[in-house]
Amino acid sequence: MQVSSLNEVKIYSLSAGRSLPEWLSDRKKRALQKKDVDIRRRIELIQDFEMPTVSTKIKVSRDGQYIMAVGTYKPRVRCFDTYQLSQKFERCLDSEVVTFEILSDDYSKIVFLQCGRFVEFHSQHGHYYKTRIPKFGRDFSYHYPSCDLYFVGASSEVYRLNLEQGRFLNSLQTEASESNVCDINPVHFLFAMGTAEGKVECWDPRTRSRVGLLDCALSSVTADTEIEGLPSISALKFDGALNMAVGTSTGQVLLYDLRSSNPLIVKDHHYGLPIKSIQFQHQLDLIISADSRIIKMWNKDTGKIFTSMEPEHDINDVCLYPNSGMLMTANEAPKMNIYYIPVLGPAPKWCSFLDNLTEELEENPESTVYDDYKFVTRKDLENLGLAHLVGSSLLRAYMHGFFMDIRLYHKAKMMANPFAYEEYRREKIRQKIEETRAQRVQLKKLPKVNKELALKLIEEEGEEQQFSKKRKHKNLPSLLKDDRFKVMFENPDFQVDEQSEEFRLLNPLVSKISEKRKRKLKILEELEAQGQEEEEEPEGKASDAESSESSDDEKGWVEEVRKQRKLLRQEEKLKRQERLKEDQQTLLKPQFFEIKEGEEFRSFKDSAKKQKLMKKTLEDRLKLEEKLGTLNVSDTTVGSKQATFKLKKSEQQRKQQEAEKRHRQERKTLRRSASHLKSRRGRGRLFH
Fold it and tell me: From start to end residue, where is composition biased (Acidic residues) (predicted)?
């Protein structure tokens, strides 16, 4: 059980720790528990509280006995009995579930809205009935007085299905093009729906007429918030008769009083991600809002943060167990998380032992070991683009570097190099193929990289081998066969550039040294052939000859280096002249362009950029827009792709943002200088 604390609020993660495979026998499980301390200490509150791959929605029945969750893959629903602390049943479905609702107090009546426009009804024994709605649905609500189901989705209509009569009724015609979420007030049964245009329409089910309209997109834009694009409504929840919370796709939560069109408070998550779930906690007057990255708890009167949680995996749904401090989440992972926060309320009746357990932990605090931190140096921070975090609470200085959260490290690494895994995978595949090729019969072939260098080494090795055989010396190891230099003939990054300035200046010296080596080998071979026993005199003569030859060689390669330098200077001059000629030609030959009707002339650069973009393929254009930040492609929970385009900022907005950034930087420098002066004055007083 992991314990975290933020703002002096302790959060106990009851699903932390490793989970054992289902196919293990009881005997092996007991053996593992004896050996592994982590498995022995873990708390399995509900047995097998997980999904095969992903869980999308999670809800609690009104009597509090059953917890129901849907997920993939394959599409299924699982019901867990809290009194037995285990799974009660599991049912597989034909298609993935968008959302579901428990109509009865227990699990005997359930309605599922599925991806393929299907609405499936389940009773206590299992599947009961299946029907279809005209357009794809995104959410639905149940109106208890009239037994009507209200479906909203990719249409301007709100479909009504009466469960008492068993037929569709006349739909509600709205002004919205599409609707994302809906909810019915539990007190006066007002029906509200959130649209893709960022508006909330309120309807009276008795008269089937619209009674109110809220423009939440306009209200979400404040002086502190930065929004790119039109925000749509992604979450909606009523609290009592008068309060309503609205979540937008840009990460804002707006709290309304139904008697006013202006929001009471606007809370920004500062992540720019759509709000997935909104819950109300009445004991402490808190609002629990969640996007895919973080769960925030804040006061609904002041907006002050109470605490927050950031799980490992992306969040799909949040469920607060009624009248308790237990919180459950559906994630992009097999295991569904369970959190217990004693400040919010007591533990449920079926797990009342949690109160005693947490009290014992608070009485006997143990030293925590930080295994979820990564050690990084300043160079690593610069490579990841996190050098600006030095001095903040996200980095803890230690020795010659810093400790940082492993989750932040992985996210920054993915942002810095998103294609690292693909490159690593390609490199591993290439290495495996080369290993299999090495087992075959190999022919003497030159490597792909640095062929000339390899040929030169092979020739030199052949000559040295012949000389060593005659002298009966041991053969020296080959550079081509040495593993330390293997990469030099495999990786194209080590390719010798013969046209570079360094190579052209050093090549005369290298060639002269190789010629000198060849001459030495020839002289030694001649001496061996003559069979001279005394080696002192010829060596003296050879040294004199070598000294004269070396002086001639030095003069020769110095002259060659000078020639290469002259050639390089001439090449640079020719390049400059060609550039000047091209500039003169462009100046002397003006070009005229016709402007199309209805278009304004801005600059030649814009038209040239547009022509280049039109020649490129759609894939290249999308990649370019992703780099510029005007396009964002993401995977939805259903498995489809979602592309969001951001509007380009005008020049005035850019200038304003640049001015604001400069102003912030100036304020930071002034604060730092003031704090530095205060610290100096304090030190001076201490010394006096």
Answer: 528-538
Count CB neighbours of 368 within 10 A: 10
Four-CA torsion 31, 33, 35, 38, nearest 10 degrees? 160
Which tokens sit at 562?
Answer: 């000078």
Identity at 651, one-letter amino acid code: E
Cβ atoms of 432 and 477 within 8 Å: the answer is no
| Cα separations in angstroms, 360 against 17, 206, 354, 356, 365 | 20, 55, 10, 6, 8
> Which among 246, 245, 298, 289 has a CA at the least distance from the CA of 271?
289
Q: Tokens representing 660?
A: 């604001």
Please report which confidence band the pLDDT of residue 572 belongs to, taking 50, 70 and 90 as the band edges: confident
Residue 390: CA count within 13 A, CB half-sphere: 15
- DSSP readout, 245-258? EEEETTSEEEEEET
Cα torsion 400, 404, 408, 409 to 10°: value is: 40
> Residue 586: is its pLDDT beyond 80?
no
Domain map of the chain by residue range? 2-363, 373-416
Angstrom distance (rounded) from CA 340 to CA 283: 15
Give, in order, the Cα–Cα distances in Å from 216 to each of 151, 192, 232, 365, 629.
21, 13, 8, 46, 25
Distances (CA, A) of 592 to 508, 603, 604, 609: 53, 13, 11, 17
2-363: which CATH architecture?
7 Propeller (2.130)
196-222 mean pLDDT: 89
- The band of 368, judged by pLDDT with boundaries at 50, 70 and 90, is very low
DSSP structural state of residue 601: -
Please state, in angstroms and rounded to a whole number, the distance separating the CA atoms of residues 311 and 289. 14
The per-residue pLDDT for range 137-162, each reduced to its tens digit, is 999 999 999 999 999 999 999 999 99
Measure Cα distances from 351 to 44, 86, 320 in Å.
11, 13, 15
Could you give the strand order of the β-sheet that contains 97-102, starting from the edge strand earlier in sequence?
A: 97-102, 110-114, 118-122, 127-132
Residue 535 banded pLDDT, cuts 50, 70, 90: very low
Residues 6+ apart with CB under 8 A from 287: 245, 253, 255, 267, 278, 279, 280, 281, 297, 298, 299, 300
10: phi then psi, degrees, rounded to nearest 5: -85, 135
Alpha-carbon gap, residue 505 to 17, rounded angstroms: 63
Nearest of 209, 205, 156 to residue 179 by alpha carbon: 156
Q: Which residues contact 277 (CB under 8 A, 6 or more apart)?
A: 235, 288, 289, 290, 315, 317, 318
CB burial of 650-662 (b: ≥16 within 10 Å; e: otherwise) equals eeeeeeeeeeeee
CB 55 within 8 A of CB 331: yes
Residues comprising the chain, all counted? 688
User: Under the phi-then-psi rule, with left for phi > 0, alpha for psi from -120 to 50, and beta for the rest, what region is 33?
Assistant: alpha
Where residue 202 falls (left for φ over 0; alpha for ψ -120 to 50; beta otherwise) is beta
Q: How big is the chain by its Cα radius of gyration, in Å?
A: 37
Among 151, 149, 249, which Cα is nearest to 196's?
Answer: 249
Q: What are the phi and psi torsion angles at 589 (to 5°)?
A: -110, 90
Q: Which of 132, 68, 67, 124 is nearest to 100 (CA)?
A: 68
Q: With a threshold of 0.70, does the pTM exceed it?
A: no
Residue 277 CA to residue 329 CA, distance in Å, equals 10
DSSP letter assigned to residue 162: E
Give the residues across from 622 on adjacent strands.
none
One-character DSSP codes across 7-22:
TTEEEEETT-S----T
